[in-house]
Amino acid sequence: MSFAVKLMNWYCEKGRDLPWRATHDAYIIWLSEIILQQTRVEQGMPYFHRFVEAFPIVTKFAEADEEDILRLWQGLGYYSRARNMHKAAKMVVSDFQGMFPTAYEEAIRLPGVGEYTAAAIASFSANEPRAVVDGNVYRVLARYFGVKEPINSIQGKKTFAEIAHDMLDKRNPGIYNQAIMDFGALQCKPKNPLCADCIFRVECVAFQERRVDVLPVKLKGKVSRNRYFHYFIVVEDDKILMSKRGQGDVWTNLYEFPMIETAEDVSLSDLMAHADFVQFFEENAVLEAVGKQIKQVLSHQNIYARFFIVRDPHALKKKKKGWNYYFCEKIDKLAKHKLIFSFLEKNGHLISVK
Ligand code: SF4
Predict the structure, then answer these.
(1) Does 107 or 351 have the greater pLDDT score?
(2) Which reaction equation describes what this protein catalyses (predicted)?
(3) Does any domain span residue 255?
(4) How many Å separate Cα 239 from the centre of its chain?
(5) Is the distance from the beta carbon of residue 194 to the nearest atom of ligand 1 less than 6 Å?
(6) From CA 16, how far away is CA 18, in angstroms rounded?
(7) Is residue 39 situated within a structural domain?
(8) Which end of the chain lies in a sparser environment, N or C, as judged by fewer CB atoms within 10 Å?
(9) Which residues contact 64 (CB under 8 A, 6 or more apart)?
(10) How confident is the model at residue 352 (pLDDT cuts 50, 70, 90)?
(11) Is 284 helix (H, G, I), strand (E, B) or coil?
């Protein structure tokens, strides 16, 4: 029995029953694929349902306000994905008469759609024989064939793309692609793969040569830089001070509390001696620390965040341009980045406003 047939048999028995698999609608498939990039299925599922409900067809998505899209997206991170989705939806309307493209060569023209997503759209919606190559597929193929080439090297990418295409079942590319991705997610997992009861344990090179834990090989990336964000939740009557982030850094145009960034972790007294703090806050400001330092990992940077409530609005000497007070109901509707969204979900009750 061929690799593909064995794999698809396994999938029929053990594959996941996911809502976006019950459709050939390229728009719905695209929504699910973009939401699931860098996101676990369990985390992405409620977002998928929310987006389908808010924008059941691509033209509705194209017409939406970016603020509304970002608000629905908040908590998922990687906001450029949401912005690219909006651009892509507009392009579907302007260049494809509102019909979401199902062909690989057309889908890949859309902003935010790379080779993987275009292959997923084309194979799932139109059965076009395009092999998807995501982290799961790299892992399964690297182990099954014992490939030592790094999956993130130029040559490695080429090698894996060729193997993936050779192995693809050209008559059932959609099912085959879903099968290999599920196999990687459920059976040939990154840690503790279920080799003992694997359908491939006889042919699998990594298993036979005891190299499962060293494959796939990945080249080390850039070293991440550390950044320290200190947030101030200034409360005035029944409103809270919020600030909208500008361009040129992470979280463009998303809302957060006024923040001071330091290059190193600093004590409270050093923070209060910081030039920005002295500029905006009174010397005797009382800062109420909330919770422990939170770490958020972004690509190539680690954000370490602390939060302080400032209950006396007079402690604020002056407002920076772009800092405005908002009622809580309005803050709910603002598009906030994940750090702020998660903080409010957990600690919102501590910021008691009258
Ligand atoms: S035997 Fe282990 S490493 Fe090989 S394909 Fe199966 S689960 Fe993956």
Answers:
(1) 107
(2) Hydrolyzes free adenine bases from 7,8-dihydro-8-oxoguanine:adenine mismatched double-stranded DNA, leaving an apurinic site
(3) yes
(4) 31
(5) yes
(6) 6
(7) yes
(8) C
(9) 54, 55, 86
(10) low
(11) coil
End-to-end CA distance of the chain: 70
Amino acid in the structure at residue 77: G
183 and 323 fall within a common domain:
no
Q: Is residue 219 domain-resident?
A: no
Could you tell me if 137 and 231 lie in one domain? no
In DSSP terms, which residues pair with 144 in a beta bridge? none
323 and 266 share one domain: yes
Q: Which residue has the tokens 């405005």?
A: 324
Compute the distance from residue 9 Cα to the ligand 1 centre, in Å.
Answer: 16
With a 6 A CB cut-off, is 199 part of the ligand 1 pocket? no
Taking the centre of ligand 1 as the mean of its atom positions, its distance from the CA of residue 105, in whole angstroms, is 33
Q: Which structural domain, as residue segments, surrounds residue 102?
A: 3-214
Asked if 29 and 176 sit in the same domain, the reply is: yes
Which H/E stretch holds residue 226? strand 225-236
Same domain? 158 vs 68: yes
- Asked whether residue 130 is domain-assigned, the answer is yes
Is the C-alpha dihedral spanning 191, 196, 199, 200 positive or negative?
Answer: positive
- 46 and 175 belong to one structural domain: yes
CATH of the domain at 246: 3.90.79.10
- Residues paired with 168 in a beta bridge: none
- Domain end marker among 162, 194, 214: 214
192 Cβ contact list (under 8 Å, min separation 6): none
Strand partners, 231: 259, 307
**Domain CATH code at residue 142:** 1.10.340.30
pLDDT at 320: 87
Structure tokens at 275: 């030039």
210 CA to centre of ligand 1 in angstroms? 10
Write down the catalytic residue from 13, 33, 162, 264: 33
Return the ligand 1 atom nearest residue 143 CA.
3
Q: Is 343 in the pocket of ligand 1 (CB under 6 A)?
A: no
Which residues lie across from 326 on neighbouring strands? Answer: 240
pLDDT digits (tens, 9 = 90+) for 13-31: 999 999 888 899 999 999 9
User: What's this model's pTM, rounded to 2 decimal places?
Assistant: 0.77
13 a catalytic residue: no
